[in-house]
Amino acid sequence: MANYSGCPVTKKSKTSFRPVRTYIGHYAVMRAPGGASTSSYTVDSLLQALGLSDQVAVDALLQKQGLEALNIDALLQKALLSSITVDGLLKALGLTTSSTVDTLLQKLGLTSTTIDSLLKKLGVSTSTTIDAIIGAAPQEFITVDTLIKKLDLSTSTTASALLSKQLTSSITIDTFLKALDLSTESTIDTLLQKLALTQGISIDTLLTTTQEAQLSADTLLSKKQLVQAVIDTLLQSFGLEESATINALLQRLNLNTSYSCSALLQKLQITVEFVIDVVLSGLAYDIDALLKKLALSTIWSVDAVLTPLLPFEKKLELDSRAIEGFEEGSEVTERLEAGSEVVEEFEAGSGITEGLEFDSEVVREFELRSEVIGELALSSKMIQGFELSSKMIQGFELSSKMIQGFELSSKVIKELEQSSKITNKIELDSWL
Amino acid sequence: MINVFVGDTVDVVLDVGCDVSSTSVQKIKYKKPNGESGAWDATVLGDNPTKIKADNVVFDRAGQWEIQAYVESPSLKSHGKIVRLLVKVHL
Lengths: 432, 91
Hints:
The complex is a heterodimer.
Chain A: E1 20-24, E2 27-31, H1 43-49, H2 58-64, H3 72-83, H4 86-92, H5 101-107, H6 115-122, H7 130-136, H8 144-150, H9 159-164, H10 173-179, H11 188-194, H12 203-209, H13 217-224, H14 231-237, H15 246-252, H16 261-267, H17 272-281, H18 287-300, H19 302-309, H20 312-337, H21 339-347, H22 352-379, H23 385-418, E3 425-429
Antiparallel strand pairs in A: 1-2
Helix pairs in contact in A: 12-18, 20-22, 20-23, 21-23, 22-23
Chain B: E1 4-5, E2 9-15, E3 25-31, E4 37-41, E5 43-44, E6 51-58, E7 63-73, E8 76-79, E9 83-88
């Protein structure tokens, strides 16, 4: 309440006066001396005059003013709808027509909405696949990106993280790729990078991170023989380079993006039980372990992949041919190493016929050499490629020895030419 | 050992093994290392009718040449055995 001890002094009298407080019923009305109301009354005094206390709610005031039928919301709605445009409304919300859906959701307080409630808003259940959600939801309402964000994932989230979000292996490759922000035109290399896979992981790493009990003794032994096998070998077996597109890989596997990841894993000889179930059960494996497992599984399945691709008999045939080729190659080496015999042939002044025969023999052996290398190149796609590669290197070394042999022969010829006489007539037999 | 080098001019004598003095055409056919073929005109040696000779032949390509005697008479056409000659590159 105001302090009346300092009341204004009227011009009529310089003498001090005390205001008279008159009570009418329970209303107190402030009156100036003389009985007339003045504009100098305070709100408090006005409230008192209306029989209201300063604790009385605004509603009571409105009732006093005959506004009982209206509430504040209705009043505001009426005021807004009659005077504000859509632009104005957006502006009032701090939005523009180009604001993103996410922003709108934020403004609507949906940022804390769970995915469940969001799905309910979309009219889909949690058992609906991502594809169905994407297909059912209007594109402008929710994007894959938004959905991934709502799942608390990022576009760089790995597939395993996606799977760990209670999705199953029945998600399509297409979805899988989208989740990785990849397309079928992305390179395998990019996919590997996305999956944080390294190409140098050996089978040893697999064995240390895998419950070996899951593998039989025979399987384990056969896998151990592939210690040096890397994912490059797998790609080679498909005739692909890392720069090949995922699409190319899918074509090699007779898959397209509508196939499930499960189908892909099966094609790569990775069982769902081995990989997906491990993730879903969440037993003893974190995401990194899964990723390693994915990479390594593709490595140790090289043999399994190759076997159906290359008939066993054909593989054996190629092996034996390559070995024969190398054995023949060693004969060439021996022949070249016996360079002194060549020199002796020349020194003996043997006839041109013999010399030519020798030349053609060397040529044949060169042909043989290229044949061997061709076989090796063909065979290098096989498991034994690494072993054969080293033999190829030996073969090239032998080739260089052959070249040395030719250089030696040339030197001998030059020496012979220096000691020869000028020929101005040649006589040969050409019997009729 | 016969040494013939690219660009050398030589007389080529072929022993055909029989008297060909009665033939009307004598040639020495050739095939170069690059596959080109042709024939040089030849004559029967006066002192030895079993040989024919092509004068001033130039071997213009290095490598293995094939040469062959050819004679022709009104009653026969006959080729000799093919012989090979290695033409070398000079210094």
